[in-house]
Specification:
Blueprint: H1 16-27, H2 49-64, E1 69-71, E2 81-84, E3 93-103, E4 107-113, E5 121-127, E6 129-135, E7 141-147, H3 148-161, H4 172-188
Antiparallel strand pairs: 1-2, 2-3, 3-6, 4-5, 6-7
Amino acid sequence: MAEEVLEEREVEPESAEERERREAALAKIRKLDDPVLRTRALPVSNFDARLREEVDWMRDVMDGAMGVGLAATQVGMLARVLVYRIEAESPTVALVNPQIEWHGEETETLEEGCLSIPGIRVDVERFVHLRVAGADEYGSAVTIEASGLEARVLAHEIDHLDGVLMLDRTSKAQRRDAMRTWRDRQRDE
């Protein structure tokens, strides 16, 4: 079995307050059937206070949902913005207008999950090394050389900004099984 890599942290909420915070955050995240998840986000041109407020709000939603990454489309905004944090104690990075500039040859297939498709995990092949260029929420140029989990999270979130889901990057059999599981869960709710 492939090593498990999730868009959400593997830590379960311990207290009732943490569970409530997580549920409230997850309620703000668009789910699989929402058409915004299939829409390509638009480039950001205004690096103003409103953008910084949106980025801070996305950070709060991602933290509340116990996520490691979140794209603006996942919360209904059609802006090319993502936030992520690999280590729980690290600051959350915001990337505006991110583009993959380069990727290495080596790929790795690992199991991924997604806050927009909770409870579903599929094997996804991704590049192990990549370079992403963009800007921070103030408009300063940012280049990130990423490997391993960081590269995978960045690729996953940039896919979201392009209207691509992890289900689009897995085998037909896994996609079919995931969709069946998703429909069964939706019917049961």
